[in-house]
Amino acid sequence: xxxxxxxxxxxxxxxxxxxxxxxxxxxxxxxxxxxxxxxxxxxxxxxxxxxxxxxxxxxxxxxxxxxxxxxxxxxxxxxxxxxxxxxxxxxxxxxxxxxxxxxxxxxxxxxxxxxxxxxxxxxxxxxxxxxxxxxxxxxxxxxxxxxxxxxxxxxxxxxxxxxxxxxxxxxxxxxxxxxxxxxxxxxxxxxxxxxxxxxxxxxxxxxxxxxxxxxxxxxxxxx
Length: 223
Known about the structure:
223 residues; 2 domains; flat
């Protein structure tokens, strides 16, 4: 039976799609059932509904702010906007417009926070560092593999991490490796190499996977 995956799947459905009939994964992981797929699709659609509600509430709250709003209210809005931006990347459908709206809101919020910092050089420096870190994080959140690994409800775990990494394209792989420390990349390389040898012994063609192992090796070299 051929499964019908969504055109714009959410994070967990993307992982099921990676696993489906993929010899890099264990037999249990690559044999995806219709029931399993349907369950994940329904759960992610429910999460999308919650997101839509939280998104609307956030902008309703932001629209009612006064000039003398308390700093803790502003910081809560910033925290919620950051959280919803990350959630949007993991949900099904095209959520780019929602993310763009959240980016615009965050710019307004950060302007207010910057105004509140006055001439405090240390506070301003910390805000600049935060803004830079957020921009880098948002850039990474455009990479599906990164989103799927960071998802709190991710289907990616230590058992299938190497298979998942080796199933990604080169650009995704390079971005994903930025999430790991040196010792983790070392372990990942060893696991990926073992997995490739096992797949080869089972008669699978691993020619398209070998260059990805080289990318992991390069990440080790420059770490």
